[in-house]
Design a protein that fits this description.
Elements lengths: L3 H9 L1 H4 L12 H12 L1 E6 L4 H6 L2 E3 L1 H10 L4 E5 L2 H10 L4 E3 L8 H4 L3 H9 L5 E5 L4 H5 L3 E3 L4 H6 L7 E4 L2 H11 L4 E2 L12 H10 L4 E4 L5 H6 L2 E2 L2 H10 L4 E5 L5 H7 L4 E4 L19 H10 L8 H20 L7
Parallel strand pairs: 1-2, 1-3, 3-4, 5-6, 5-7, 7-8, 9-10, 9-11, 11-12
The structure holds iron/sulfur cluster (SF4).
The site of iron/sulfur cluster (SF4) has 13 residues, from α7.
Length: about 350
């Protein structure tokens, strides 16, 4: 039992710390407690593939940004607990404004979303007044208010192709995904110069060494990776695309160039195959997203028990921002990219 005074102090420090920093009774079985809280509160846990494996294992739905948005839009739970990063919880709030949306750690941000501050982007947009703005869903809620259509790496090609060819297109915030889309669609895009800290660190040299060591391995990469990695990849796809490829492919060894949390689902779905996380250019664990990994089972339990921290947005942001997400969901539906599992 947590003392009331400790809880009050933790609550006062919530904004500064990002989570309720209180000690948990070590004898508690967190998995059992989380399962109990899910039922008691009619809560659903949505987890991104880049979460720690114990969080993935207790989630009700695990997916990439598209699947998670589709699930957030259709769930009948009263509380959505988002085991992911801040922009994902914001997206869930925009799609389900009447529901309570919880994020285990408010400081679970995203370097890519941060690389496109809305005030600067507004000026950039003013220089191209006739352009349609397509933003990768990895952006802030406020940026979504300046966006015509959102996209994820699963539906980005369909989104670009839905825009008449005589229209200029601004693509933000990821320059690597933007350059990849230029190649895939044959369109010139006006690119914002943003990037993800995780997908920029893969070492060409170390991947080549691994390929020599495992000559039959397939190199698979997320389109947020830099061009020199994409050029040598055997397959490029969104997290769910990579997952499907590894399960369906005849190959039995894969070098995986994206956040290493995805390996857990790959190993669960194809236990006889070998998955090697593509190494970063230095010795740190840079192929792990430090923002995604801020969430822990302890923080997940505390946020469900006390229903804090909660993600809220100004009504005008929800009203203006949700249009770009709904447009994306319509295009995905038409392209046959509806919710699958
Ligand atoms: S992996 Fe990159 S794009 Fe994804 S949440 Fe982390 S910083 Fe953002």
């Amino acid at each position: 039992m947590i003392a009331t005074e400790d809880l009050k102090i933790a609550d006062r420090n919530l904004e500064k710390k990002g989570f309720l920093d209180v000690d948990i009774d070590p004898s508690l079985d967190l998995e059992d407690e989380i399962e109990r809280l899910k039922k008691e509160k009619n809560a659903i846990i949505l987890a991104h593939y880049y979460q720690e494996s114990d969080i993935q294992d207790i989630a009700d739905y695990i997916g990439d940004s598209l699947g998670l948005s589709q699930k957030a839009a259709t769930t009948d739970a009263d509380i959505i607990v988002f085991a992911g990063v801040h922009f994902m919880a914001e997206t869930a709030k925009m799609l389900s404004p009447e529901k309570k949306v919880l994020l285990p750690d408010l400081k679970a941000g995203c370097s890519l979303a941060d690389s496109c501050p809305p005030a600067l982007f507004r000026k950039f947009k003013e220089q191209h007044p006739n352009a349609v703005v397509v933003s990768y869903i990895n952006c802030t809620a406020e940026l979504k208010t300046l966006t015509d259509i959102c996209c994820t790496s699963t539906n980005a090609v369909d989104v670009i192709n839905s825009i008449p060819r005589d229209k200029e297109i601004i693509f933000a915030p990821d320059r690597n995904l933007g350059a990849y889309l230029e190649k895939k669609t044959g369109r010139d895009l006006i690119l914002w110069n943003g990037s993800c800290m995780v997908h920029e660190v893969f070492s060409n040299e170390k991947i080549t060494k691994l390929q020599l060591q495992y000559p039959d391995a397939k190199l698979i990469a997320h389109p947020e990776c830099e061009e020199h990695i994409l050029e040598k990849a055997d397959f490029i796809g969104s997290t769910s695309g990579l997952l499907k490829y590894t399960k369906d492919s005849d190959a039995d060894t894969f070098i995986v160039a994206t956040e290493s949390g995805i390996l857990h689902q790959m190993e669960l779905r194809a236990p006889d195959k070998t998955f090697i996380a593509a190494p970063p250019s230095n010795e740190c664990a840079c192929n792990e997203c430090p923002h995604m990994k801020r969430n822990t089972m302890e923080k997940l339990y505390l946020c469900m028990k006390y229903e804090k921290p909660e993600v809220n947005l100004p009504p005008w942001v929800i009203k203006e921002g949700v249009k770009s997400i709904e447009r994306m969901l319509e295009i995905s539906e038409k392209a046959g990219l509806g919710l699958k599992d």
